[in-house]
Amino acid sequence: MVTIPAGSTLVLRCPGEQPLALISLGEVSAPFLAELPPIPVLGPDGPGVRRFGILELVSSAGVTWVEAELRDGVLTRLGDPPTDVVQRRGAARKPGLYAATGTAELDSEPGRRLVALSGHVEDVSTSGLLLRAVPAGGVHLPAGIVRTLLHISMPWGDLATTVTTVEQRADLLRGTYAWMGPADEEALRAFCAAR
User: Fold this and answer.
1) For the whole model, what pTM was predicted?
2) Taking a C-beta distance cutoff of 8 angstroms, is the pair 91, 103 a contact?
């Protein structure tokens, strides 16, 4: 089963243009990639504009790349899909919205500095998470975040963890856990494994 949750960021790479970050407006799913229906997205174009390119498709099954067309706010897969996802998600994971506050450590000259931030975790797994957050009084995360100390409101209580940044874009930060208490680790494992 391939599922693209609402609010996911999809990247369309068109020849000779900057990559476009598109936000999915609704959850889309299919048993197989070849059966994936058109994806409604929020994009920069007005009506009537068509773009063709390679879509970086991040789904519940992993990451793959497919040819796609963007037209009137809808992404449509073109041609034959690849035979498999390129990166398989091995860690148990669960999408959702979990309130989070914390402190980001920036790798900036002349030294590292700390910035308070708040937001929510949109996707949590046993190996890492996806955080959407902003600093106090800011509109997007500052560049160069290397590590973040987070307090996340989970269904079983407060989860305290340190996250090492893997990827950062605007107000999104994807990272892996650098530290977590053993009790929280066990609770997270049970939470992600539950269906």
Assistant:
1) 0.55
2) no
